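Exercise 7b. C-alpha cells:
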C-alpha cells in the first residue's frame, strides 16, 4: 500500500513538473521565435556583432555560471553521478544566452536548452520535496517534459528521456512518470500558444527489392552523417579549446569567421535553427545540394566557438535537406525520404532508437511507421559509438562502474 501511495504521489508530481516546464518552454520558445523574426528583418545589421554577442555570453557564464558551462554534459553528469546536481542558475543563463546566440545569427538549436530547462526545474522540485533517492527519476521526468513542451511530441519525448542517458538501456520503470510529464508539458505549452511543427505526409513507399536496397543506402548515409556531425563537433570543440584556450579570443575569432561565412551564403539561410530549410524541403522550394553540409559545418563551428543552443533542430534540417538530395539521386519520393532524413540523422547523432521513430510518427503520421522503423534501425546501426552528448555512457560502462 505504501508503494502505491508513493507512486501515485510521484505521478501527481510529474503532472506538476510537466505543467511548470511546459509553461517555461512556452516562454522560451515564443521569445526565441520573436528573436529569430527580428533577426531575419535586420540580419545584415546584426551579424557583424556576433563576436561581441559571444563575448557577452562568455562573460555571463564567467560571472554567474560557474559549474554550468557544460550544458547538456552537466545534465548527463547529474544523471550518472550520485552526488552531482543541476545548479539553479543554469535555467536563466541557458535561456538568455541562447536568445543572444539566435538574435545575432548563430547556427544552433533549442532542444538542449529545453531539456536543461526541464532538468533544472525538476531538480529544484526534487530537492525541495526531499526526494533524495529519486534524483535520477526526477531528472528524466524533467528531460521528458522539457523536450515535449518545446516540440510537443510527448511519446517521443518520453522515450528520449528514458533511453538517452545510457546507450543501450531503456529505463522502463520511469516511463509512466515521463509520459505524464510529457503530455502535461505538451498540453500546457500548446495552450499557452506555442505551435507544433507537423506535416501530414501523403507520399507512400511501395516495398520492392530495388526500393529496399535504395532505402538501405539512404539509411546508411543518414547514419554516417549523424556520426560525422557528432565526431566533428567533438573534435572541433577540442581543437578550438586547445588552440584558443582563452574563451574570449576563441569566440571573437570564430565569431568573425562565422560572420564572414554567413555573409558569403544567401542571407540568413544557415543562421538560427534551420527551420527555414525544413520548411523549404517540405514545400517544394529549391534545396541546394550543399545545404546539408553547409548547415552541418556552420552549426559545429557555432557551438565550438562557445555560443549556446542545442543541436537537434539543426540535425533535423541537415537530415531533411540531405533526404531531398538523396531522393533525387536515388529516384525515391522526395518528401518521404526527407521525412526519413529528419528522424534518421537525429537518431544517429544522439544514439537513440525509439524517440526518433515516434518523432516521425507524431510529426508525419503513424501510417509511415512501416518504413520509419527500418530506416531508423539502419541509420542507428551505421552511427558507431559517437554521440553529440559527451556524458552518455554505454550500458557496459555502467555495469562496470556498478561492479566496482
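Sequence design result:
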Amino acid at each position: 500500500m505504501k508503494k502505491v501511495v508513493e507512486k501515485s504521489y510521484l505521478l501527481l508530481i510529474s503532472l506538476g513538473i510537466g505543467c511548470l516546464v511546459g509553461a517555461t518552454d512556452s516562454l522560451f520558445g515564443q521569445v526565441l521565435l520573436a528573436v529569430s523574426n527580428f533577426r531575419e528583418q535586420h540580419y545584415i545589421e546584426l551579424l557583424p556583432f556576433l563576436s561581441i554577442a559571444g563575448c557577452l555570453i562568455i562573460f555571463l557564464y564567467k560571472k554567474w555560471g560557474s559549474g554550468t558551462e557544460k550544458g547538456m554534459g552537466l545534465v548527463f553528469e547529474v544523471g550518472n553521478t550520485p552526488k552531482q546536481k543541476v545548479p539553479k542558475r543554469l535555467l536563466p543563463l541557458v535561456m538568455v544566452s541562447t536568445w543572444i546566440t539566435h538574435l545575432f545569427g548563430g547556427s544552433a538549436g533549442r532542444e538542449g536548452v529545453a531539456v536543461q530547462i526541464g532538468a533544472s526545474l525538476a531538480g529544484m522540485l526534487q530537492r525541495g520535496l526531499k526526494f533524495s533517492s529519486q534524483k535520477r527519476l526526477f531528472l528524466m521526468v524533467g528531460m521528458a517534459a522539457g523536450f515535449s513542451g518545446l516540440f510537443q511530441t510527448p511519446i517521443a519525448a518520453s522515450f528520449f528521456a528514458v533511453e538517452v542517458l545510457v546507450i543501450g538501456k531503456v529505463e522502463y520503470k520511469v516511463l509512466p512518470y515521463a509520459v505524464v510529464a510529457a503530455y502535461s508539458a505538451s498540453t500546457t505549452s500548446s495552450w499557452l500558444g506555442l505551435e507544433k511543427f507537423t506535416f501530414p505526409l501523403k507520399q507512400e513507399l511501395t516495398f520492392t527489392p530495388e526500393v529496399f536496397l535504395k532505402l538501405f543506402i539512404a539509411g546508411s548515409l543518414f547514419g554516417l552523417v549523424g556520426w560525422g556531425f557528432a565526431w566533428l563537433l567533438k573534435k572541433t570543440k577540442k581543437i578550438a579549446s586547445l588552440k584558443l584556450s582563452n574563451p574570449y579570443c576563441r569566440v571573437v575569432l570564430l565569431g568573425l569567421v562565422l560572420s564572414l561565412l554567413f555573409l558569403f551564403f544567401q542571407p540568413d539561410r544557415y543562421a538560427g535553427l534551420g527551420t527555414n530549410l525544413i520548411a523549404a524541403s517540405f514545400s517544394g522550394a529549391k534545396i541546394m545540394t550543399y545545404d546539408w553540409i553547409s548547415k552541418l559545418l556552420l552549426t559545429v563551428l557555432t557551438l565550438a566557438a562557445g555560443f549556446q543552443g542545442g543541436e537537434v533542430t539543426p540535425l533535423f534540417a541537415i537530415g531533411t535537406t540531405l533526404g531531398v538530395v538523396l531522393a533525387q539521386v536515388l529516384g525515391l519520393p522526395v518528401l518521404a525520404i526527407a521525412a526519413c532524413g529528419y528522424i534518421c540523422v537525429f537518431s544517429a547523432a544522439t544514439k537513440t532508437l525509439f524517440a526518433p521513430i515516434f518523432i516521425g510518427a507524431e510529426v508525419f503520421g503513424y501510417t509511415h511507421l512501416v518504413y520509419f522503423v527500418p530506416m531508423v534501425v539502419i541509420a542507428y546501426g551505421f552511427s558507431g559509438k559517437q554521440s553529440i552528448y559527451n556524458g552518455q555512457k554505454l550500458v557496459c560502462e555502467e555495469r562496470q562502474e556498478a561492479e566496482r
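Instructor comment: The chain is about 70% helix and 0% strand. Strands lie at 166-167, 393-394.
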